[in-house]
């Protein structure tokens, strides 16, 4: 089914979007090890209350997606896409909605479902557990001895991550961490076929109070609902 396949492709990066999109300002630390950098970032994610950022995703075949990401503790999430216009990913921690406007298709994923034995968890909305899961499933180290160093006009740490078990998805990830603010502002993720997806975050704000309407979602009358596209 085209709708189901499209929903699967569209949501492949959803967990990673969230992990990379949520960050909190912090004081700079000098001479940190790679493990200390990872711990500092995880600690900040645990304290997030409200978050907003612009994102750009450059993927397969030069395709670009843009939009705004929102998060409100403990479990509200929304990705509003400006390109492709009308696409959305919205969750309250129990249900994940994935809207693909051009197909009039909506994926409705029950996040309370328990994975089958041997399978990975479906999705985590909360940034703390999501980030810990990422570091638990990947070996990581600094990509070079020179840390931090100037990249994209700012000093940053670069963590090189390799998937511990080759289970599909992204096998290799480079995380770019701002060394002064301790937020992840870019990631380059490569899958088993060698295709690389780059996610860049800008205009990050954590000093806001997001209203509940930001996270509301209602399918249109002519939308086709695809149940549990991430596990079926």
Q: In brief, what are we looking at here?
A:
The protein has 232 residues and is of the alpha+beta class. The protein has helices at 2-11, 14-21, 34-46, 127-137; strands at 50-58, 64-72, 76-83, 85-91, 95-100, 105-110, 138-142, 149-151, 154-163, 170-178, 184-191, 196-205, 224-227. Strands 1, 2, 3, 4, 5, 6, 7, 8, 9, 10, 11, 12 and 13 form a 13-stranded mixed sheet that branches.
Helix content: 10-25%
Give the CATH level 1 class: Mainly Beta
Determine the structural class based on helices, strands and strand pairing. Answer: alpha+beta
CATH homologous superfamily placement: Lipoprotein localisation LolA/LolB/LppX
Mean of residue pLDDT values? 85
**What's the domain count?**
1
Q: What percentage of the residues does DSSP assign to strands (E)?
A: 35-45%
SSE string, helices as H and strands as E: HHHEEEEEEHEEEEEEE
The tally of beta strands, per DSSP, is 13
User: If classified by CATH, what would the architecture be?
Assistant: Clam
Largest sheet: 13 strands, mixed
* Subunit arrangement of the protein: single chain
Rg: 17 Å
CATH topology category name? outer membrane lipoprotein receptor (LolB), chain A
Tell me what you see in this structure.
Residues 23-29 have low confidence and may be disordered. The longest helix has 13 residues, at 34-46. The chain has one domain (2-227): outer membrane lipoprotein receptor (LolB), chain A. It is built from four helices and 13 strands. Strands 1, 2, 3, 4, 5, 6, 7, 8, 9, 10, 11, 12 and 13 form a 13-stranded mixed β-sheet that branches. The protein starts with a helix and ends in a 5-residue tail after the last strand. The protein is 18% helix and 41% strand. Helix 3 (34-46) runs antiparallel to helix 4 (127-137). It is globular. Strand 8 and strand 9 (154-163) form a beta hairpin. The chain has 232 residues and is α+β, with helices and mostly antiparallel strands.
């Amino acid at each position: 089914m085209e709708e189901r396949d499209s929903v699967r492709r569209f949501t492949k990066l959803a967990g990673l979007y969230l992990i990379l999109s949520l960050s909190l300002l912090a004081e700079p630390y000098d001479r940190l090890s790679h493990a200390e950098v990872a711990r500092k970032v995880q600690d900040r994610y645990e304290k997030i209350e409200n978050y907003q950022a612009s994102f750009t995703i450059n993927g397969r075949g030069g395709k670009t997606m843009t939009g705004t990401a929102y998060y409100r503790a403990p479990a509200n999430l929304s990705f509003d896409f400006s390109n492709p216009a009308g696409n959305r990913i919205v969750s309250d921690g129990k249900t994940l909605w994935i809207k693909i406007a051009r197909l009039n298709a909506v994926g409705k994923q029950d996040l309370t479902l328990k994975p089958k034995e041997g399978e990975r968890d479906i999705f985590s909305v909360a940034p703390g557990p999501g980030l810990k899961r990422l570091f638990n499933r990947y070996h990581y180290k600094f990509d070079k001895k020179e840390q931090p160093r100037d990249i994209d006009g700012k000093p940053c740490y670069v963590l090189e991550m390799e998937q511990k078990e080759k289970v599909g998805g992204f096998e290799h990830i480079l995380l770019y961490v701002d060394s002064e603010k301790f937020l992840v502002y870019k990631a380059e993720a490569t899958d088993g076929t060698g295709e690389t997806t780059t996610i860049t975050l800008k205009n990050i704000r954590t000093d806001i109070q997001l209203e509940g309407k930001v996270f509301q979602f209602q399918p249109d009358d002519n939308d086709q609902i695809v149940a549990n596209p991430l596990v079926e």
